[in-house]
Design goal:
By secondary structure, the protein is of the alpha+beta class. The chain contains five helices and seven strands, in the order ααβββαβαβαββ.
């Protein structure tokens, strides 16, 4: 039989081991809780990375905005071309290689007219100017609408030289048709027939050696 002292020492050793086990269990539980929190945070960050990645919220916003942008553009483009041209925006296209199934993210512009549907680059400079103007105005209106603010000023800088007389008249008609949607529209041009289409003009003249002067008429 072990002596009383030996039993006391053995009891103390067992008690110490039990205490160490309890401390280890508490530490293990704490680390498990920390791991659980880290896994939850990692899962949340992964979801955020997807949500704010190329295929997430921004893609959804673009997909939601594209139809409205197309509609606004085509309303203006139709007036400029007597309904002859219709614009389409494409945000995806198929890959040429069959190895990958996912489409390529892109932004391509195609326009349909009486000849057929062709890429933007296949149209003449005058036709592209009309598309550019309609698209710029529509994009400005869309951005103003999304921000909940008015778009006070629209600048249209040159480009009228690419149009024939009928084309210029239609563009002027479109500008006048949308003037109530802006506080002011500033058209910059050197063409007298365009200048004469608007009642208020700022005529800028440059004089050699004395800078430039302007007159409001």
């Amino acid at each position: 039989l072990k002596s009383k002292n030996e039993l006391h020492v053995f009891h103390g050793s067992i008690t110490q081991q039990l205490n160490q086990i309890s401390e280890t269990e508490l530490e293990l539980k704490s680390k498990k809780d920390s791991r659980f929190e880290i896994e939850n945070e990692l899962s949340m960050l992964s979801d955020l990375a997807i949500a704010f990645g190329r295929g997430g919220v921004q893609a959804l916003l673009i997909e939601a905005a594209i139809p409205r942008l197309e509609d606004e553009t085509n309303v203006l483009l139709s007036r400029m071309t007597d309904g002859r041209m219709v614009l389409q925006l494409h945000t995806q296209r198929e890959r040429r290689s069959s190895k990958a199934d996912d489409p390529i993210e892109t932004l391509e512009v195609t326009i349909s007219d009486e000849i057929g549907t062709r890429p933007y680059e296949m149209f003449s400079g005058g036709e592209r100017f009309r598309v550019d103007l309609a698209l710029r105005i529509a994009l400005s209106k869309l951005l103003a609408w999304r921000s909940g603010a008015q778009l006070p000023t629209l600048f249209i800088d040159e480009g009228f030289g690419t149009q024939d007389a009928e084309g210029r008249d239609k563009i002027v008609d479109v500008i006048k048709a949308i003037e109530d949607q802006f506080q002011r529209i500033l058209v910059i041009t050197h063409m007298e027939e365009i200048q004469e289409a608007f009642p208020v003009r700022i005529e800028v003249s440059r004089k050699l050696g004395s800078g430039s002067t302007f007159v409001i008429t």
